[in-house]
């Protein structure tokens, strides 16, 4: 049986090896399939975009609804406070300076700007005399002759 292996030193004299022809890269079936996939992808992009926009709008509306419910709950708490008689009395005292019969109202006004303006409008007091001028005027008064 002849050996299937060639010796390493053998030369190629007879038949040379040739490459087989390669098949085409894309067949007509593959081209149609790719075109169909692209057409389907393009056909689904618009509905997908609309779906995602609607999902974001729904999320925004749900958050707005939650904010409105929180505001309604806060307003309900405020309304419950105003139904309490003691709270009404406290608010009348603070906001409208309400006093009960027999009480004396006292209102403290902290108006620093008005006080500064009033101080600027007043004329300054006369400077006090120097001590030696006062002493000398008393000596002159004692030395003066009485006018009778």
From TrEMBL:
Keywords, in A-Z order: Membrane, Transmembrane, Transmembrane helix
Domain of life (superkingdom): Bacteria
InterPro entries reported in the protein's UniProt record: FtsL/DivIC
Membrane-crossing residue ranges in chain numbering: 26-46
Region (Disordered): 1-23
Pfam family, one: DivIC
Protein name: Septation ring formation regulator EzrA
